[in-house]
Design goal:
The complex is a heterodimer. Helices cover 22% and strands 37% of the residues of chain A. By secondary structure, chain A is of the alpha/beta class. Chain A has two domains: 276 residues, no CATH class; 60 residues, no CATH class. The longest helix of chain A is centred in the last third of the chain and has 17 residues. Chain A is globular. The termini of chain A are far apart. The C terminus of chain A is likely disordered. By secondary structure, chain B is of the alpha/beta class. Chain B has a single domain, classed as Rossmann fold (3-Layer(aba) Sandwich), CATH 3.40.50.300. Chain B is built from nine helices and twelve strands. In chain B, helix 5 runs parallel beside helix 6. The mean pLDDT of chain B is 91. Classes of the chains: A alpha/beta, B alpha/beta.
């Protein structure tokens, strides 16, 4: 069997062997699923002839017979989440295991009235109108979620459970929303298809911290999608930390639609995983909005990490900053594809895209591709990309002060990542991330951590 | 403390030092002067153990050990400090964290315990005052965006903190305005002690008005061609290096 036949068979298994979804008896949901199902039949399996997949092969994915499950078969009683969460009562906490909400691990005590934080499945009956309204937003539909490719359609075809956040007009949420996506990979090769929806209404503000982590040593594939609406003059700070096992496969889709004068700050960290890719798509529905999309990826032996950014400036007077840094060690591979499009009528756009990479070994590889497409004539746009190695002059300087070579390199790497760490406003999150970066890049060599 | 005997060193197979001899004892301050490309910086770098220099002949004995066998960090732990001509910027590496890590590495080598945070803060502030370094620079990344004078003062701050046995100042005066030069020199003078030796490498006699050397050596074409007292430096200033090197170098 050649590769494309293998792929076809893999796809067939993927979509026919899963469990039947619970019937919510919601017409709009069934229609969405069915439309996605139809689209899925017409999509080809991504391959490297397609520009969006040129540097990212899915060969690693199709080695496994991933199987979808719509129910959580078993939660181990000993499941410990302590190392991944903030101290009690400092956040509104939701815990999802294999894509499904586990109420006994959640803590949303004190949540203000009118604020909805919960799981999508249950919210479909309580907040069905809101969900239907946003998921059928025409501006959005064309961009992504269902229409982009096979994996996006797959997620929608199985749309069932995930995170649901709705902050009502002018509400300023007092604590961060903390969401732990724990993937338990205890035996079979799981396909996990979470679907998240985050709506910040006009003038409201919130902080959202998401962590994707795993327990267990079996392969799994999380194909998740998150739709975020930051409406007029609303604010969202969003930290998305992906830090999964060496057997994990992760494809994340984040779609952001910003209203006039809104502000979105997204900090994206990819710290671990066998094969991981995150596509971030941001666009505007009004003037004067600002978005920051910042990220760090650390990639070690045999890992692949891919970020695809697509920022569409389709309204005037909006600004955006995209700043990603990567540290690639061992035989790790990273892909960065950052694209900013400024439409003809989006005058006074101010956009900057930066991507800097540090390669720690001769085998490390990065493919970086910044793109600016500008159709307006009164804009301020720039992009810059660098790929470099640790500077021996810097190492010498540090060593000449009594610090050994391994520590010198570690200090330089953490320094390189420092600009991104500085964007992590919560000290607990920052120290967690710094520790994880050190472990990912340096622990295999057995060096001590100070 | 330091005996350099018949030192030959090359970089990229190009010989730079061609039989250099120098003996430095505790408590002494030696000035090494010389025209450009005479090998002054090569000497500094070979002493500190920078990669890329090949010692082809001769020996360096420091405190009774073969210095050339020690890696750079070990030399620093044994008390050698090089104040660099061009201090390197370390973006993202916090100056305070760097200084503390460095001091602790050296303290551990001396068999001392790590310094606690409060004591370190007090110490580093005291030393910063000594070299008139704005405390704000302690919280910034090492040398990143510092002016030339701030970088040199940060070097002397490190020296004051690490209390080396042998300090090498590689053209510390270059590019400094007169106030910065005075401040740096005061910092250096405050560290003079009977236990400590210093090698001051410079192109100009001016620095030696502020840091008075016990000995002055002229390095030209890879060798020390003349040694004397500070009087020698004055004569060099008046007559130029050509007076001594036979007119080849200015």
């Amino acid at each position: 069997m050649n590769m494309s036949e293998t792929g076809r068979q893999w796809l067939h298994n993927l979509i026919t062997q899963g469990q039947i979804l619970p019937d919510q008896q919601l017409d709009w949901l069934d229609q969405n699923r069915q439309a996605a199902w139809q689209q899925m039949q017409s999509f080809e399996l991504p391959d490297r002839k397609q520009e969006a997949w040129r540097y990212t092969s899915i060969d690693r994915l199709i080695k496994y017979n991933f199987l979808h499950t719509s129910e959580l078969s078993e939660i181990l009683p000993g499941t410990e989440i302590g190392e991944w969460i903030l101290p009690d009562n400092s956040s509104y906490r939701l815990v999802f295991i294999n894509g499904h909400c586990v109420p006994r691990l959640c803590n949303i005590q004190g949540l203000p009235r009118n604020v909805a934080i919960g799981c999508l499945r249950a919210s479909m009956s309580t907040d069905g109108e809101v969900i239907r309204h946003y998921l059928s937003n025409p501006l959005f539909k064309q961009s992504s979620s269902t229409a982009r490719d096979l994996f996006a359609a797959l997620n929608t075809a199985y749309m069932d459970d995930g995170l649901f956040v709705h902050i009502p007009k002018n509400a300023a949420l007092d604590r961060p929303i903390e969401v732990l996506h724990l993937n338990l990979a205890m035996d079979n090769e799981l396909l996990i298809l979470p679907r998240h929806l985050v709506v910040i209404d006009e003038g409201a503000s919130a902080t959202l911290i998401e962590r994707y982590v795993s327990q267990g040593n079996h392969a799994y594939f999380s194909n998740n999608a998150c739709d975020i609406f930051v409406n007029g003059n609303a604010r969202l700070s969003h930290y998305r930390i992906q830090d999964e096992s060496a057997q994990s496969h992760h494809l994340g889709r984040v779609n952001i639609l910003q209203g006039a004068d809104s502000n979105y700050k997204g900090v994206y960290l990819a710290l671990g995983g066998s094969w991981s890719r995150c596509d971030i798509d941001a666009r505007f529905s009004g003037k004067g909005a600002h978005c920051d999309i910042i990220g760090l990826y650390t990639v070690n032996a045999k890992q692949l990490t891919d970020f695809h950014l697509n920022v569409l400036h389709n309204h005037a007077h909006c600004s955006s900053r995209e700043n990603f840094r990567g540290i690639i060690a061992g035989s790790g591979r990273a892909v960065f594809d950052g694209r900013i499009v400024v439409e003809k009528h989006a005058q006074k756009t101010d956009a900057q895209l930066t991507n800097k990479n540090l390669l720690l070994s001769l085998d490390a590889e990065v493919d970086t591709k910044p793109q600016l497409e500008i159709y307006a004539d009164d804009v301020k746009c720039s992009h810059g990309t660098t790929v470099g190695q640790i500077d021996p002059k810097q190492v010498f300087y540090i060593r000449s002060r009594g610090i050994d070579e391994a520590m010198a390199k570690k200090m330089l790497c953490l320094g390189f990542a420092g600009e991104i760490f500085d964007q992590l406003d919560l000290p607990e999150v920052r120290s967690f991330v710094e520790q994880r970066v050190q472990n990912n890049l340096f622990a295999p060599q057995g060096q001590d951590v100070h | 403390m330091l005996q350099i005997t018949d030192l030959h060193a090359a970089i990229d197979n190009k010989p730079i030092l061609l039989g250099l001899n120098l003996t430095v004892n505790a408590g002494e301050v030696h000035a090494i002067m010389g025209p450009n490309a005479s090998g002054k910086s090569t000497l500094s770098h070979v002493l500190a153990g920078k990669d890329g220099y090949e010692v082809t002949q001769g020996s360096i004995v420091y405190k009774g050990q073969n210095l050339l066998e020690l890696p750079t960090e070990e030399r620093a732990r044994q008390g050698i400090f090089l104040a660099m001509q061009y201090p390197v910027e370390l973006p993202g590496v916090n100056n305070m964290v760097f200084l503390r890590e460095s001091l602790n590495a050296i303290r551990r080598a001396r068999g001392e315990s790590d310094i606690d945070a409060v004591a370190f803060l007090r110490l580093v502030k005291e030393k910063a005052r000594l070299v008139h370094l704005d405390e704000k620079l302690l919280k910034r990344s090492v040398n990143t965006g510092f002016s030339g004078g701030e970088k040199k003062r940060n070097e002397i701050l490190q020296m004051a903190l690490l209390e080396p046995a042998l300090a090498i100042l590689d053209e510390t005066d270059s590019g400094l305005d007169i106030d910065a030069l005075r401040v740096v020199a005061e910092g250096v003078n405050a560290l003079r002690s009977p236990q400590r030796a210093m090698i001051v490498v410079t192109h100009y006699q001016r620095l030696l008005d502020y840091i008075e050397p016990d000995y002055v050596h002229v390095l030209a074409n890879g060798k020390i061609i003349r040694s004397g007292t500070k009087q020698l430096a004055r004569e060099l200033e008046e007559k130029g290096y050509g007076w001594i090197t036979g007119g080849a170098a200015a």
